[in-house]
Amino acid sequence: MSSKKPCIICVAITGSVPKKTDNPAVPITVAEQVESTHEAYEAGASIAHCHVRNDDGSTSSDPEKFARLGDGIRKHCPGMILQFSTGGRSGSGTERGAMLPLRPDMASLTVGSNNFPTRVNENPPDLVDWLAGEMLKYNIKPEIEAFDLSHIFQAAKLASIGKLKSPLYVQFVMGVKNAMPADKRAFDFFVETLERVAPGSTWCAAGVGRHQIEVNEWCIAAGGHARTGLEDNVRIDRNTLAPSNAALVKRTAELCEKHQRPVASALQARELLGLAIG
Predict the structure, then answer these.
(1) Which is nearest to 80 in space by CA: 14, 136, 11?
(2) What is the pLDDT of residues 162-172, one digit of tens each?
(3) Cβ atoms 82, 70 nearer than 8 A
(4) Tell me: domain 10-273, CATH 3.20.20.70, correct?
(5) Is the pLDDT of residue 2 over 60?
(6) Is the distance from CB of 66 to CB of 102 less than 8 angstroms?
(7) What pLDDT does 1 receive?
């Protein structure tokens, strides 16, 4: 067994964009999502990053759907970290945080705006403050989604004035069209900047589309954590659709083995992130 720090694998199971027409394996209903998450959990994922959809595949922020999804994952994936999305594609304004009273272990939080492929990922300061306040209120650990370098500085500022708890957990999102590209030197600078402005922070990164596997390897090799899953990428390679979320998790776990990083269990992931155990 390697003595290196265990690597937390987060599986982003559904997202708001991929459809069954893109890949039939994308789980849409709550039952499909629970089954897919269970397979990914058995393959080594210890965080489930969750969105919910309507049965027709359209996006939703319905707290009732989040409640059923959370209950199913807790039942079938003991100890797995529940991370609910408050992303802007699923709703508007405070609707985006309507599920936070359910008290998931974690929730995503984007602390600034940026461009997406066809729209603006809008995160105005008053909404960011409200979402951060709700996460403090319900003892939810934010995952800071950094789509831009400024988001790292803003997260550090919010922590310095008590609007976010330290140590931070930050995810660098790379490869979204019109946002931060998947660039290795930029990645290295993100890591160095976070460690400088928010010492003691934990970090991971997500690569979108064909960049998923390379960003996974950058993270694992550099001692960070990794995110995979059908939300970000529906393929194994250019010509092959991923058969499941679990297949993408297994591919990430193989990179951990290559770099002599043990895959973190759910218990180890909770310890590394300072989350409640039990």
Answers:
(1) 11
(2) 999 999 999 99
(3) yes
(4) yes
(5) no
(6) yes
(7) 40
List phi, psi (to 5°) of 57. 95, -10
Per DSSP, the three-state class of 261 is: coil
Give the whole-angstrom CA distance, residue 268 versus residue 276: 11
**pTM attached to this predicted model:** 0.96
Cα–Cα distance between 103 and 69 in angstroms, integer? 13
Buried/exposed 237-263: b ≥16 CB within 10 Å, e otherwise: eeeebbebbbbbbbbbbebbeeeebbb
CA distances from 21 to 27, 48, 143 (A): 12, 23, 30
Express each pLDDT in 228-257 by its tens digit.
Answer: 999 999 999 999 999 999 999 999 999 999
* Token reading at 84: 């609910």
SS (H, E, C) 15-77: CCCCCCCCCCCCCCCHHHHHHHHHHHHHHCCCEEEECEECCCCCEECCHHHHHHHHHHHHHHC
Residue 40: what residue type?
A
The amino acid that residue 154 corresponds to is Q
Q: Structure tokens of 45? A: 């994922």
